[in-house]
Amino acid sequence: MAHIDYYLSTLSPFTYLAGTRLEEIAMRHGATITYKPLDIVTLFARTGGTALPDRHPARKAYRLQELRRGAKKAGLPINEQPIAFPTNPAPASYAIITVQKAGGGDLGGLVHGILRAIWAEEKDIAESEVIRAALSDAGFAPDLADKGMLMAAEEYARNLEDAAAVGVFGSPFYVVDGAELFWGHDRLDDLDRYLSGDL
User: Of 13, 34, 35, 100, which is most buried, counting CB atoms within 10 Å of its CB?
Assistant: First the structure.
């Protein structure tokens, strides 16, 4: 059975555009998933990337076109320039880490709900009530947002180290069995084919 380490930023619009396709692919192939939220800005600095504010205007303009086209292809609503972006990604990331340990709800649904909140619903995912609502919608106890903060913070930092060690440099990033890497929501078809033995 294959295992997928799913490195993600709760701020990434491209992770939002992935929807819940990873979960559908994993279910089809009997693969397991570990969700690994991380600090994408620090990862960029460590792996040669450029944070969005520092990119050339041409790259920023192209990114907006890619978001519009990607949302249309995915059938997802999107605001390419949401009011609450950027924001602090840590609280939502901590919630994902905490409930992954606790179990009992729809983890993929939670991740997508948090991303949808920022990219389609004009909500600030650093706010406690937004995180608690996303937890509740995904079948988790809302008060899990307030538990395990130290453990979650430590794992959040560890996810960054794990990502850098294995060769991850963006979000979303999928690592199969610690070796086969797929970067971007637009590589999910390749991931699917790889798990089928076609790639």
Answer: 13
